[in-house]
Amino acid sequence: MQIGVLLPALLSAAVAGAADIPQERQTELANLLKQDCGSCHGLRFKGGLGPALLPENLSGKSDAALVDTILNGRPGTAMPPWRDFLSAAEASWLLQQLRNDTSQ
Amino acid sequence: MSRLDFSLIFFALLSLAGAAESAELRGTGDLGVIVERAAGSLQIVDTTHRARIGQVKELGDLSHATVVYSRDERYAYLFGRDGALTKIDLLNASIVKRLEQAHNSVGGAISQDGRMIATSNYTPGGVRVFSAETLEPVADIRAEYGEGQFSKVVGLVDAPGQRFVFSLFDAGEIWVAEMKAGTAPGIRKFKAGKQPYDALISPDGRYYIAGLFGEEGLAVLDLWDLQSGVKRILPDFAKTDEKLPVFKMPHLEGRALVGDHWFLPAIGHHELWVVDRRSWQIVKRIPLEGQPVFVIARPDERQIWVNFALPDNSQLHVIDTRELRVVKKLNPGKAVLHMEFTPKGEEIWVSVRDDDKVVVYDTETFEERARLSADKPSGIFFTARAHRLGL
């Protein structure tokens, strides 16, 4: 019962956290997303050395799993951990950008 | 009007026409291009006057875009991330022909005789070959492995004997394709190691060296002696050290063989490896302040210039090839992506992506000579590449 109450609260906290990212930092993150993530995933996220990250490619995957991939990388692949550059809220913000496909 | 007057006017008109024409006539040996990766455009630049002379737009997704030149140095062949191959006339700053040849590409090469262009594709995985003149298809080499899988292709270079050599990232192989007119390409395949991420060919065209991401060491193929197969070098070298996360794959280039030494970027380490040319043993590990990406010798081979992966990508280091140590550190700006020497190396052009600029340095004094604005610049390619193997 308690967990059921807590989980939505945590989730909304994460979303609120993303909204709290200052505009200046959002600009930096958007540049990182396009230029640095884009180096491997394509500037239009249609894939490269890394897989495509278009909304349809991400649709079946949970936020938690994708944020974990961003922060901790995927061992055995070329995807590095970005945790030294990003907070969990920032990774979540990046993911929402990809899901909303605002890059186009 | 006397006959004399008439002929005077005639000559005056002739010389006017001549003047107009000579303003248009020019060589291309001091030209080059700068890729504007996000805008999908190319600047055409003149390295003598350190100036932009033209721009070509609407070239698609140019992340990781590369360029090779026709051997008359008039045409640039641009390979875009989105699989487009574009032939560009430097003199007219115009697109001669554009082809959507794959869905996802990473580079290309021009054959020894200048008649064929090959593309290195991720999707569909393989190499496609086209006529350099018309861009009509010549061959389609699918990088098939396992049970009907296709591998991403990296490290594509031209080699003597009308050959293209390339590596299969997913299959862990090196393939040598011999292109003879009128017949299907002759392919020879070699086991290389896990996840070759890029490769180089030595300036003499003899050695093809692939860097490995999935395991330690590099794979070397002696193209003068294919019978001997791939030799693995430095296999145990870095095992004892903790490998750092790689935020950008190093790029291997043949312009890093100097005298008795190869200068190779150490993937996952803040080091440059100096390797003996013949024994393939490490001579020295030069410490750096980041993970190297491009390692390029000045044309006279006195210096090696190195740029870095995130988060150290605002710097450049210069290594003296005689002393084997860093002799100069520069800070051109945010996100230094690429650098290109002028043909004889008195200057180097450096692209600084996040500052939207290209900085030109004097390579003796390290003073800034010029600064050009560019929209998120990445690769810089000068026409002197036209006459070098593997570039």
Fold topology:
The complex is a heterodimer of chains A (104) and B (391).
Chain A: H1 2-19, H2 23-41, H3 55-58, H4 63-72, H5 88-100
Helix pairs in contact in A: 1-5, 4-5
Chain B: H1 3-24, E1 31-36, E2 41-46, E3 51-56, E4 66-69, E5 75-79, E6 84-89, E7 94-100, E8 104-110, E9 116-123, E10 126-131, E11 137-142, E12 144-145, E13 149-150, E14 153-159, E15 163-168, E16 173-178, E17 186-191, E18 196-201, E19 207-212, E20 218-222, E21 230-233, E22 257-258, E23 261-265, E24 271-276, E25 282-287, E26 292-297, E27 303-308, E28 316-320, E29 325-330, E30 336-341, E31 347-352, E32 357-362, E33 368-373, E34 377-382
Overall 3D form of chain A = globular
Helices of chain A, by number, come to: 5
- Mean of the pLDDT scores of chain A? 83
Biggest interface goes to: A-B, 20 and 30 residues
Q: In this structure, how is the largest beta sheet of chain A organized?
A: none
Estimate what percentage of residues of chain B fall within beta strands.
over 45%
> Which structural class do you get from the secondary structure elements of chain A?
mainly alpha
